[in-house]
User: What shape does this take?
Amino acid sequence: MGLFDFLGFGNKSNSIQEFKDKGAVIIDVRSQGEFAGGHIKGAKNIPLNEIRNKIDDIKKLNKPVIACCASGMRSSQATSILKQNGIEAVNGGGWQSLQSKL
Assistant: This one.
C-alpha cells in the first residue's frame, strides 16, 4: 500500500464500482453554497464540519458511503471519520471526477 492508497487517493475506480454495486449513497461534504453550485444527482449534502453530528443519521441509511468534495481532501477526512464510526466508506475524491466514474 502506497502513501496515496493510505490517504485514500489510490486507484479508486474499482472501489467506486464495488460501492456503486452495493447501492452506496453519495455524500458530498462541501459547503451548502458549493453544493448549490453543482453536484452529483442524488447526492446528499452533509458538510464536513457536520459529519460527526450526523453519524447516527448516516448509519440509519444502512448503506455504504462514497464521500466526495471539490478536490478529495475533505472527502478523505470524512471517509476517515465515517470508518472510525463503523460506516463502510470510500473517498470518491472530487465530485466532478467522481461523476465521470458513475
About this structure: The first helix runs from residue 3 to 7. The radius of gyration is 12 Å. Strands lie at 25-28, 44-45, 65-69, 89-94.
